[in-house]
User: Which sequence fits this backbone?
């Protein structure tokens, strides 16, 4: 009987063959094939699980080889495959000739989840020859998860692999039964559809006219956005509204993200992600790690297909801000280790927020929604200037939309639309933009953007006032979102005028 397990290298699963050899020498048990310490420890778990299950562990010198032997393997999901291989030498499993087994063993013989069912589906999807001739042996939890993922994929139009004969066991003892009798009752499938975890209408604070407009434009176009202003002006309230209007992830991004979540031993979650990090975040936390072929996803990959909130963005360490350059530019980034490189995806919308001075009181006078009030700013002019300098540099070229809230427009809050109205307006505009451009306006490629500019002297003069080609393209992208909100297929003069008004904030700073 051939027994397989699998490991993940450079984000892709690869099958490994479990080989067995036993000699009549002093009893011993050794695992070969560059196993990580947790695989070495499997020896003790397996011997103990055999005893607890009333099985006799062979009194021989046992060698287990995990082939290919030249690649380092990690993870605890190989325990069941190794145990199965040892048992197959004494028990006749003639009805199953090729088996993939996944699961971790407890000392009492119970099977724990390996947590890599998304990768197992990828493996069956053409990475292993003749998957339909395989028998699949999974623990109870892994089996439920495997079914949940297959069910989600089927509902979202993915081609599912034929998993062959799937068997489910809860305890090592059950391996004594003939393989055909291992299948348990059908699993009741959880509904994997996104459940709205967004804030309810009651918890949302009213927004000013400018805040509402910026919210709508950024939500329609998936623009990277920076919200600035003194404390108490409603930046956090805007973030809550962004959360409430989040669009569901694209199907492919949701599946790719599921694999990233498994790389961190998290259960895949298909809700549109909203990741939030604190201001002292480090580059390794954002990008993840990549050592010896093993990738552990960072916050950016976990936000793939969703939103990424960067609170107190000006306070971020310089290197953390700088490491966002490639991810924001190309929606993916490269990680390098001694053994090679890996490209991880992160198609996300960045929403940053921050103050305009270290104490958060600048500008000192602004009108709140109840009265004009004077905030106290204890910073000197030099300190404010130094603080604002943190908001310059190449990373900020990649942020489409800038807005400085002063609070002065909050008197218009009575005109604030309800959550239902806003969702309706935003989703209608999103549909229109997708129908016209095929992608969200922030993702329109540069060559297409040039064709969207109306050929009139006025709009050309407007666009020529931008400093660089990147600025010019940002302007067209924002104008496209504004046009979609107004129900227009392509931007007109007023869309460009409004888009330029947001660029003014950037210039002032
Ligand atoms: Zn201040």
Assistant:
């Amino acid at each position: 009987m051939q027994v397989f397990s699998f490991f993940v290298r450079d984000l892709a699963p690869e099958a490994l063959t479990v080989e067995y050899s036993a000699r009549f020498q002093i009893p011993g048990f050794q695992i070969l094939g560059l196993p990580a310490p947790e695989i070495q420890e499997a020896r003790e778990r397996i011997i103990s699980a055999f005893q607890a299950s009333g099985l006799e562990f062979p009194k021989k010198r046992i060698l287990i080889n995990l082939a290919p032997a030249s690649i380092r393997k990690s993870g605890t999901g190989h325990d069941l495959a190794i145990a199965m291989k040892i048992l197959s030498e004494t028990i006749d499993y003639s009805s199953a000739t090729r088996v993939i087994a996944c699961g971790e063993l407890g000392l009492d013989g119970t099977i724990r989840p390996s947590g890599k069912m998304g990768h197992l589906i990828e493996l069956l999807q053409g990475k292993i020859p003749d998957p339909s001739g395989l028998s699949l042996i999974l623990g109870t939890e892994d089996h439920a998860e495997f079914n949940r993922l297959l069910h989600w994929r089927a509902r979202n139009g993915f081609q599912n692999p034929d998993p062959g004969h799937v068997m489910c066991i809860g305890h090592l003892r059950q391996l004594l039964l003939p393989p055909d009798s291992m299948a348990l009752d059908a699993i009741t499938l959880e509904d994997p559809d996104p459940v709205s975890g967004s804030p309810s209408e009651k918890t949302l604070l009213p927004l000013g006219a400018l805040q509402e407009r910026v919210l709508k434009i950024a939500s329609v176009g998936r623009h990277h956005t920076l919200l600035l202003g003194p404390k108490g002006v409603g930046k956090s309230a805007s973030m809550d509204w962004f959360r409430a209007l989040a669009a569901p992830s694209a199907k492919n991004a949701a599946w790719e993200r599921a694999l990233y979540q498994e790389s961190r031993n998290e259960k895949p979650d298909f809700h549109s992600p909203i990741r939030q990090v604190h201001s002292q975040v480090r580059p390794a936390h954002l990008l993840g790690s990549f050592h010896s072929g093993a990738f552990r996803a960072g916050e950016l990959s976990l936000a793939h297909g969703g939103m990424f909130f960067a609170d107190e963005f000006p306070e971020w360490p310089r290197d953390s801000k700088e490491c966002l350059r490639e991810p924001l530019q190309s929606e993916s980034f490269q990680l390098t280790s001694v053994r090679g490189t890996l490209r991880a995806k992160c198609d996300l919308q960045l929403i940053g927020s921050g103050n305009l001075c270290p104490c958060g009181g600048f500008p000192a006078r602004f009108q709140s929604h109840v009265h004009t009030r004077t905030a106290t700013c204890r910073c000197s002019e030099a300190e404010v200037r130094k603080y604002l300098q943190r908001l310059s540099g190449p990373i900020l070229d990649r942020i489409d939309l800038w807005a400085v809230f002063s609070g002065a427009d909050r008197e218009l809050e009575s005109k604030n639309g309800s959550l239902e109205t806003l969702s309706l307006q935003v989703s209608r505009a999103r549909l229109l933009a997708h129908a016209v451009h095929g992608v969200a306006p922030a993702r329109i490629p540069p060559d297409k953007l040039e064709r969207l500019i109306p050929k009139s002297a006025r709009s050309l003069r407007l666009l020529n006032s931008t400093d660089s080609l990147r600025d010019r393209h940002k302007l067209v992208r924002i104008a496209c979102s504004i046009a979609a909100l107004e129900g227009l297929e392509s931007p007109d003069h007023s869309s460009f005028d409004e888009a330029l008004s947001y660029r003014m904030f950037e210039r002032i700073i």
In short: The chain has two domains: 2-182, 201-417. Residues 185-189 have pLDDT under 50 and may be disordered. The first strand starts at residue 2 and ends at 9. The radius of gyration is 28 Å.
